[in-house]
Each structure stands twice: as C-alpha cells, then as structure tokens.
Write a structure and sequence with these properties.
The chain has helices spanning about 5-10, 30-50, 80-90, 115-120, 150-170, 210-225, 260-265, 285-300, 335-340, 350-355; strands spanning about 20-25, 55-60, 65-70, 105-110, 135-140, 175-190, 190-205, 235-240, 255, 305-315, 325. The chain is α+β, with helices and mostly antiparallel strands.
Length: about 375
C-alpha cells in the first residue's frame, strides 16, 4: 500500500522505483479533429468499397479545413459533407467561433494513389499483397492493467474521455471540446502504486472561473475516473495558464498524425514513427502496428512475460517482413515468446484477414488511444 511519504519522496529514483508520465487529448484537440475527419472519410470509402486505397491528410486552422492526400476507390462519397458532420459530432457548433461545422470553408485537394505504389501493393495472388510502404512498427503490452496497457496512458485517456462525457451529457455545461490531460504514476519495484500528479487543461466558457474548474477536476472528475489510484498527496494542476476560453482550431493549427504517442502507449513502448489515422490497412504503419499489439497481447495474456514488445519491419511492395523482433525486458520466457511469434504470419494480407480490417471500424479508433479499448479486433 502506497503512503503519502512514498509519493512525496518520488524524486528519489532508481531503476525500479520511478515516476512515469503520459498525456492524452480530447476529441476537440485540433490534431484530433483532423484525425477524426480523416478516419471518417476512410470509413465512408471502405463501407462502399473495402478495397479502397486511402491516404487522407487533414489540416484545420480558424475557418478553414483542408483535405489532401491520395484516394483510389469506387466509393461515391461527399467528402465535404463528411468533414462537416465529423466537426459537428465533435462539438464545434458555436457560431461565435471561426471554426464551426457550418461556417468553415472546406478545401478538397485529393488525388489518386500513385500508380507506382499501386503496382507494388497489388498482386495477382492476394496473399502476396505487398506492404504499402517501408517502415518499422512496434506493439506493446504489459500486465500492469487488465487492459494490458501502461497505466499512465490508460488513466490519461480516461480523464480526457471523462471531460467529453461531462460536456456531452450536460452535467458541466461550461466545458468546451478542446482539452489535454496528463497523469504521473509512481512505480515501486516496477509496479504502479499511486497517481502523483494530475494535469488537466480544458477549454471552457468565459463564464467559468478557474476555481470552479479546479473544484470539478479535483472533487468530481478525478475521483470518479482514477478511484483508488488517488492519494491525499496527489497534486492537481488545472488550466495552468489561468484561462482557456479560446481553443480548438480557432486558436491553434491541427494536422493529422501529430499525436502518435497519445495514440499508442504514452511513451512506455517504442514507436516506429508512422501515424495511423486516414490510412487504409494496406498501409503497414497502421495494420502492422495493430498486429504487433495483438501479438504482444498474446505473449502477456498467455503468461509468457509480464511485459512484451514486438517490432516488425517492411520494404515497400514486399509481402514478407524484413525482420521481426521480440523483447520481454527480462520479465518472462523470451524463447517461448519468440517461438509463438515464429508461428504467426506477418504478411499484410494475412494481417488484414486475421484482424478483419476491411471494415469501417476506424472512426472508433481515433480518440482516446488505438489500444486498450474493447471492441477492436487487435484487443481480442
């Protein structure tokens, strides 16, 4: 059982006793607005044409939203209408803000997929579909939570989702869509024992005072979300600048793919650098990372290790991976883990088939992490 003294002395660090911090963002964060628009367009394409090739990028700033990239699909969709609906669903509907669903100007700069990329990906034998790009992907799992996720990012996501819940159900009508959370967790002997610090920056109506927002975070939101992980020594940092009325793309520029650590493991596991949103599963940045997560989960859930990380690498146009590596961090049977991985098929077509990725499921992944959430095939 953690004591207040052990939290207070967290500055005394060692290899097994430390504080680890991860952050999350709400669905109204400018970058996440862009991710959600991109994934909404992707889902619309796949719903009509599962073989769609989509690499959709989005930029949002003030009253403008730019859709760019490459799409080759038989789907007939209205990208502008989809974008406006996504912005409206997030909650940017206030006419006094420059970025609102009905008031934005949408620029559509989509072209077709490069024929050179297409010839590398498409194959006469479907099972030999080539990787859509070169790159490295990682998957990670840990038994420190029932979701097999690192606790700091899991709790940060839950706080961010809690902000959205309270905004949408009307219990805190002063909340607005933009926001960020950050959670610092104390570890003793490599196991989480308590939350040391909670940081919440949330956009709000001008009528809400900082004292009101702090009281909400400390006495209602955090106890509900974090439960027993809180201690009397947990410190709260709420809207540190003092005011956060002007937010979202009205105040800051958003771009797809800028929240890759938020999307994955909060810094606890390594990242290959490729973003997820707006990409169909022929892009191994997405499907490869999802499969590596699934494999890491198998290693941990089968009791072969307490922590596991899987790396895969690809060459564009080639089906077989260049390399596959397993790491158990000294927490289990690495030989058994490697043997399990050797039996699995990492070719893109096999991954797409095993995880049933040619479905419109990607809007569900955009916010509050691509991992650790129920209902996603790589979490099964």
């Amino acid at each position: 059982m953690v004591t207040a003294a052990s939290v207070e002395s967290r500055e005394t660090l060692s290899a097994t006793n430390y504080t680890f911090t991860s952050e999350s963002v709400t669905e109204g964060h400018p970058d996440k607005v862009c991710d959600f628009v991109a994934d909404s367009i992707l889902d619309a394409c796949i719903e009509q044409d599962p073989g769609s090739r989509v690499a959709c990028e989005v930029l949002a700033k003030e009253g403008r939203l730019v859709i760019a990239g490459e799409i080759t699909s038989a789907a007939k969709i209205d990208r502008e209408a989809i974008a406006r609906a996504a912005v409206r669903e997030i909650g940017y509907v206030y006419p006094d803000e420059s970025f609102n669903a009905d008031g934005i100007t949408v620029f559509d700069w989509i072209s077709a997929q490069s024929s050179e990329i297409a010839q590398g990906v498409d194959r006469a034998v479907a099972a030999e579909q080539g990787a859509g790009d070169q790159g490295i992907m990682f998957g990670y799992a840990t038994d420190e939570s029932p979701e097999l996720m690192p606790l700091p990012i899991l709790l940060a996501h839950r706080l961010a989702y809690g902000l959205a819940e309270d905004r949408k159900n009307g219990s805190e009508p002063w909340l607005r869509p933009d926001g960020k959370t950050q959670v610092s967790v104390v570890y003793e002997n490599d196991r989480p024992v308590a939350v040391a610090d909670v940081l919440v920056s949330t956009q709000h109506a001008a009528s809400a005072s900082r004292e009101q927002i702090t009281d909400y975070v400390a006495t209602r939101l955090s106890p509900r979300i974090l439960g027993a992980w809180l201690t009397p020594s947990t410190r709260f940092h709420v809207n540190p600048t003092g005011s956060f009325v002007h937010g979202g793309p009205s105040a800051d520029c958003g771009v797809t793919g800028r929240k890759i650590i938020v999307d994955s493991y909060g810094g606890a596991g390594r990242h290959g650098g490729g973003a997820f949103s707006g990409k169909d599963p022929s892009k191994v940045d997405r499907s490869g990372a999802y499969f590596c997560r699934w494999v890491a989960r198998q290693i941990v859930s089968q009791g072969l290790a307490h922590r596991a990380e899987v790396q895969v690498s690809y060459a564009i146009g080639q089906a077989k991976p260049v390399s596959v590596k397993v790491e158990t961090f000294g927490t289990g049977d690495v030989a058994a883990a490697e043997e399990l991985v050797k039996r699995l098929d990492f070719r893109p077509a096999a991954i797409i088939d095993r995880l049933r990725l040619l479905r419109p499921l990607y809007r569900k992944t955009t916010n509050y992490g691509h991992f650790g959430k129920p209902g996603l095939p790589w979490e099964e």
